Amino acid sequence: MIQTTQLSKKYGKTEVLHIDSLEIPTGQSFGLVGNNGAGKTTYFNILLDLVRPTTGAIVNHDIQVNKSEEWKTFTGSFIDESFLIGYLTPEEYFEFIGDLRGMNKADVAKYLEQFDDFFNGEITGKKKYLRDLSKGNQKKAGIVAAMMGNPKVVVLDEPFANLDPTTQIRLKIIIKELTRNKQVTILISSHDLTHVTEVCERIVVLDKGNVVKDIQTSTETLKELESYFSV
Amino acid sequence: MISHFLKLEWKQYFRSANWQKSVFLNILLVLFALYFTASFLIIGIGGFYILEEQFPDKDPLILVNSFLLFAIVGDLIFRYIMQKLPVMNIKPLLTLNIPRNKIVHFILVKSSFSFFNIMSLFFYIPFSVVLIKEGYEVTGVLGWLATMILLIQSANFLNFLINKNNIALGGLVTLLIGGFLVQQYEVFNLAGFVGEGFDFICQNPITAIAFLVLLIVLYVLNYKQLRNEVYLDALISEKTKEANASDLSFADKLGDLAPFIKNDLRLMWRNKRTKSSTWMILMGLLYGLFFYPQPMYREMQFMYVFVGIFSTGTFLINFGQFIPAWDSGYYKMFMSQNFKYHRYLESKFTIMTISVVALFVLGIPYIYFGWKVLLVHFAAMIYNVGVNTHVILYGGTFNRKKINLDEKAAFNLQGTGAVQWLIGLPLMLLPMGLFALIDWLVSFEIAVVGIAGLGFIGIAFHQKLMAFITKKYITNKYVMIHAFNQEN
Q1: Contact B350, B389 (CB under 8 A)
Q2: What region holds the ABC transporter domain (chain A) (predicted)?
């Protein structure tokens, strides 16, 4: 369960985020949509304690994220390529993250096996550094690393951007698989309404930092969102 | 955890884009490093004996102590300008399962081992060894050495605290200049006074502990400050500067070259790499002060040519050698736009010519060293405009290295290939040799006329030369586009 209370973030006088209350129950697949500057990334950054809130707090599984760092043990995330360690090869990167999450080499190899299709032979065994991969391939590596070590919460910022159509479809399958047992809470932000309605059971729309819609996904959701955004 | 960090550091170092550039450059850098190390070592070992010989009535250690204040303040100013905490590197670690305080300790401890802290040890350690060998009391010397090491480390951490604070820099500069002045006019021997403190440490080595306390306090302060700032909206934010749109409409007078010239001016103002090379231009302009005051060089008139070419052409060389690599980031876009290549090159030529003339004008005070100097500088200016601009533009067709504008210029050899070095030689050596030859065979005046004459010939054939160079650029277009697409 991730609880947000009285959260706000101001830069100078401009308020970029203001959420009075938001609860994301354990096991939910949660989608965040909104135009540029709506506050999606800011929300994720506060959730990951990369940015300090001006007021309020986010509590991730009973841990207030800006007070204790315990949440790091069960939260995996991928924000953007700048969070990758560019001078490592993908294998080394996975090993490094795996190590931090208590996985040994064999565990990591076994974990990566299930992503062979997803990687499409372009990530591992290429003798390339992460910085030399294309944006899409960097994203694939980052997403897979975010899900290592059985995290309870997975945060992905714009996971569908830059991916090719085949990989987008595969990613959707992976996300659905991950949330099937209702054990893992997954938070996704996206500009692509189709994708996000397909994988998320709940969608929250942000506009200028405020929650303007909170929808349980149904067959009408896509239409509703499209009409909302087509102003 | 520590082994993780060390492994990452190791990989980062050996896999950095810098390391993986050409072998040639690496050898050059290693030679530079060796040279600096060796010179520090020699000063460290020989320093004692040199001082003993120069000031036979004084104790070398006390002499060194009396200058330490200046060394320390100078070191702090140098660090203030050059040294920054490498905080961006830790961004990827923030979301991982690593406690924040470990990350903070990691960057702080890592900074202890930076180049700035190691370099001076090459002086202090051998100097101490010599002191012991010369019969100074061992514990005293060790206490002194420990104090030095602790002071270097303290300076390291003090710098991070005062960095970005211009008042602190002002204070340091005032201290340095003020200390020098009061010493010079014998008002008060500030440095000597501080030096006595160091003498006291030699006699009572246990007092070095005070500096250990100082170091610990500074470290803790740093830790506290940094711990609160490792957030994306604090220290690790990429500063976005407010765009300053200066009015460049004066360039419109240059007709159809104006768009390119404006673009180049903005390129120079707004990028790290180009901005930090502006002080190199100042250095180039003042380069003559290095030679002319010495009577030895006054006799060698061909050196005037060297200084003349260099001081009027420092911008020409700095800027010109990376044409068209300055535009490498968007070269593809340029090549798909509707303009004549000739205009693009002509604009670069115009900028370089203006700079050469401007630098000559700024260098007119060199007349202090005699009218001959200025005359040669004038000839060198003409030569720069007529010959060197064309040579350097031609050299640009061999440019195959991309340039990242966001990186600093000092010690940055990115974009440099063997061609840059090869082109650099004829730019200066050829006119020097020619001048020396005519001067020796005929006379000084004819030699000046010869150099200037070559320049005028170049200017006369400007259109022809540009047509030839443009053709060369067009033939090389695809190779360059391909090369600029590659990351180094």
Answers
A1: no
A2: 2-225
Write the pLDDT tens digit of every residue in A111-158: 999 999 999 888 888 888 888 889 999 999 999 999 998 999 999 999
Residues spanned by the domain of B397: 253-485
CB < 8 Å & 24+ apart, contacts of A7-12: A7/A43, A7/A46, A7/A53, A7/A55, A7/A56, A7/A57, A7/A58, A8/A53, A8/A54, A8/A55, A8/A56, A8/A209, A9/A39, A9/A42, A9/A46, A9/A51, A9/A53, A9/A54, A9/A209, A10/A54, A11/B233
Residue ranges making up the domain that contains A136:
84-150
A78 pairs with which residues across the strands? Answer: A156
| Closest Cα in chain A to B12 | A87
Beta bridge partners of A76: A154
* Residue A196 counted as domain residue: yes
Q: A97 and A55 share a domain?
A: no
Q: What are A58's strand-pairing partners?
A: A4
Residues A40 and A128 in one domain: no
Cβ of residue B295 closer than 8 Å to a chain A Cβ: no
A vs B: CB pairs below 8 A: 53
Q: Do A100 and B92 touch (CB under 8 A)?
A: no
Instruction: Choose from B2, B97, B231, B239 for mutation: most chain A CBs within 10 A.
Output: B97
DSSP B387: I
Same domain? A140 vs A178: no
ipTM, two decimals: 0.79
Whether B108 and B207 map to the same domain: the answer is: yes
Tell which of A44, A82, A130, A131 to mutate to test the B interface (max B CBs under 10 Å): A82
Q: Check CB contact under 8 Å for B95 and A77.
A: yes
Distance, CA of A6 to CA of A211 (rounded, Å): 12
- Which positions in chain B touch A73 (Cβ < 8 Å)? 97
Domain co-membership, A137 together with A231: no
Find chain B residues with C-beta within 8 A of A83's C-beta.
91-92, 94-95
Residue B401 and residue B262 in one domain: yes
Nearest to A79 among B4, B95, B234 (CB): B95
Report the Cα B188 to chain-centroid distance in Å. 35
A163 and A70, same domain (yes or no): yes
Residues B298 and B203 in one domain: no
- For B427-455, write each residue's pLDDT tens digit: 888 899 999 999 889 999 999 999 999 99
Question: Structural domain tally of chain A?
Answer: 2
B83 and B148 part of one domain = yes
Q: Let me know if B135 is exposed, middle or buried by CB neighbors in 10 A (0-12, 13-18, 19+).
A: exposed
| B95 contacts in chain A (CB < 8 Å) | 48, 50, 77, 79, 83
Residue A79 lies in a domain: no
Single pTM value for the model: 0.73
